[in-house]
Amino acid sequence: xxxxxxxxxxxxxxxxxxxxxxxxxxxxxxxxxxxxxxxxxxxxxxxxxxxxxxxxxxxxxxxxxxxxxxxxxxxxxxxxxxxxxxxxxxxxxxxxxxxxxxxxxxxxxxxxxxxxxxxxxxxxxxxxxxxxxxxxxxxxxxxxxxxxxxxxxxxxxxxxxxxxxxxxxxxxxxxxxxxxxxxxxxxxxxxxxxxxxxxxxxxxxxxxxxxxxxxxxxxxxxxxxxxxxxxxxxxxxxxxxxxxxxxxxxxxxxxxxxxxxxxxxxxxxxxxxxxxxxxxxxxxxxxxxxxxxxxxxxxxxxxxxxxxxxxxxxxxxxxxxxxxxxxx
Length: 328
Prior knowledge:
Elements: E1 25-26, E2 31-32, E3 40-42, E4 47-49, H1 54-61, H2 66-85, H3 99-109, H4 118-128, E5 133-134, E6 139-142, E7 148-153, E8 157-165, E9 170-171, E10 179-185, E11 192-194, E12 196-198, E13 202-208, E14 214-222, E15 232-233, E16 235-244, H5 247-295, H6 300-315, H7 319-322
Helix pairs in contact: 5-6
């Protein structure tokens, strides 16, 4: 900012600053070409007007007409009004997404599985059920009260459960993301959850090729929340499909399953070893930091607090079981 006072003392740089183009005053013509805005240091909680040298300020504006001075302070007061209006900002509020919004988000990420046409459903089933035949009679159920039906799965076969909506049946808002096709064992056994799932006014879920005979309950659950209620309303038809599988194929499937389990276990052990190594190094570093803290004359409680922060940062949330807290 530049102020021409024709011989009058100039403003100190720390006194006033301007926002925008330079400001010029012509004291001999007695008018101002533009107004000066005092520097307002704004913060969320405070407003500071910086004016370090009042005498210099008065000398600088002494030759300016009273009218210009009055207008200057009018602008100044208006600026303060805006300043103080922002001292107590409105705190932003967080509204968690509704269940319908969550369902829509899931449905969108999955390509809106319930919106396919009946013709698309038939093509979908033909693709996945190649070689499969109906096993047993169709089962008539309703979506209103949840769906649980008993099924017997036997070694030597692979299975699919096919669902079709009946006349007037509709999905709930929660079900727009689709259903889980679950097979819960009645006794000992492994829980099975198979796809591909819903595709328009129906869908299918695989039970795989069990390695042993077993009694199960087929259960429909919403993908969102894994709930059995709120599926929708109206009648549906369920039909179990199966196809034979040879012993050789079963052995290959078992070998593949065992390989995946072994890989998962190996990964778990590797991660545990890495975590143990990290914990050992982290605890040692924090112990050395504690000793340095005590050597500097700080109290035990203060150094222990520092140790806790160090251990959490280096080891993680498991540090209490991995590190020994120094006591002296």
